[in-house]
Amino acid sequence: MRHGKKFNHLGRKTAHRKAMLTNMANSLIEHKRINTTVAKAKALRQFVEPLITKAKDDSQHSRRVVFSYLQNKQAIDELFGTVADKVADRPGGYTRIIKTGRRLGDGAEMAMIELVDFNEIYSPKGTTATKSKRRRRKKASDAADASTESNESAE
Fold it and tell me: Does 2 reside within a domain?
């Protein structure tokens, strides 16, 4: 039975799982978005979000703790530089998982995991996403009155 066991082992031994999550976290920090299976994306979210929280406090100790997980100096520089600046005011929830369907080969559920603040489409600050104003439709009697008024003013 699996009572109280919340950690997904992903069908791998501990060393393989840690190495895979490290590599996926490095790719996510470098590219800001990666495609993977839903199970791996959920495991990666649990792995990388505490590291991003640590990166908000740029100290030598934080850098060493995060380096012990990532083992990549370029990823550390990127995480403590651009990523930490973007997420400075966010209290949590740094990643977003978007399901993209099933893989053709084995039917596994696929997903795209991305850093939330680096997607301009979904962000409320983005210039591409604009809301249209909602207006109430005129009643038939009001519409008829408006059309007669416009005809009278045209004459």
Answer: no
For the entire predicted model, the pTM comes to 0.76
Counting Cα atoms < 13 Å in the Cβ hemisphere of 50 gives 9
Residues 84, 89, 90, 91, Cα dihedral to 10°: 110
Task: Kindly give, in sequence order, each residue whose CB lies less than 8 Å from that of residue 91, ignoring residues fewer than 6 positions away.
Answer: none
Q: Identify the CA nearest to 77 among candidates 24, 115, 30, 22.
A: 30
Sheet holding 33-37, edge to edge: 33-37, 109-115, 95-102
Q: What are the strands, taking DSSP E only, across the chain?
A: 33-37, 95-102, 109-115
- Give the CATH number of the domain where residue 82 resides: 3.90.1030.10
Domain membership flag for residue 88: yes
- Mean pLDDT throughout 5-34? 95
Q: Taking the chain, what is the end-to-end CA distance rounded to the nearest angstrom?
A: 84
144 band by pLDDT with thresholds 50, 70 and 90? low
Q: CA-CA distance, 108 to 103, in Å (whole number)?
A: 5
Is residue 5, in this structure, part of any structural domain at all?
no
Domain, as residue range, for 134:
14-154
SS3 category, 21: helix
